[in-house]
Amino acid sequence: MITEEWAPYNYRENGRLTGMATEIVRAIMALTGDDFEITLLPSMRTTRTLQSQPRTIMYSLFRTREREPLYKWVGPILEESIHPYQRADASQPIDTLEQLLQAPRVTTRHAGLVPDTLESLGFRNLDRSANQNVQLYRMLLAGRTQIIVGDTPAGVAYYSRLLQIPAGTLRQIPLELFRSSLYIAFSRDSSEAVVTRWAEALDQLRSSGKLEQIRLAYE
């Protein structure tokens, strides 16, 4: 089982792997009796490993049309969206897609689903200079960029706490650029019995209210 550093869903804190999705996966294993070791990999290696290494499980992954035939899926575990953000005291508030497309620069991660999605939407003003999500907030606060795109609202809340950004400093631009559900992905050669067992355990967590309890703990 593999995952990547992506707070607040899966990340390392004080030497321990934690996060919303990590807690869900561990709750599933408590029901199924599995005890798979979880390996934290660099983001660019996770999907390559999932496609090349036999009987591999990865979480958490957006289920997209392009990825659909590549894996077996268990979920959804969460539904999330991506919005752009700017400073609340920005001299030119952004409210429309046209304004965003014409902005001097929109800063995002150097690689991944978010920048690729933005390019597919017609953005030609992307600054892919951030290697880590935390850099986006530091660049915005330091005035090195005016607009960032990279995290879900839960992620923005996490980094705001991490960097002690005062409430009201960031403004969510009212444009939903991406919405999808997060899933647990299994390599195509994974046992159907295991996939079914995990799907049933997830349904049990959902019906018992445990899934919602885990989500609310990270708000």
| Number of helical segments with 4 or more residues | 8
Task: Count all strands and give the number.
Answer: 12
User: What topology, given as strand order, has the largest sheet?
Assistant: 5-12-6
User: Which structural class best describes the helix and strand composition?
Assistant: alpha+beta
Percent of residues in helices comes to 25-40%
The helix/strand order is: EEEHEHEEEHEHEHEHEEHH
Radius of gyration: 18 Å
The unreliable regions are none
**SS strand fraction:** 25-35%
Q: What's the rounded overall pLDDT mean? A: 95
Biggest pleated-sheet summary = 3 strands, antiparallel
User: What gross morphology would you assign?
Assistant: globular
Query: Distance between termini?
Result: 26 Å
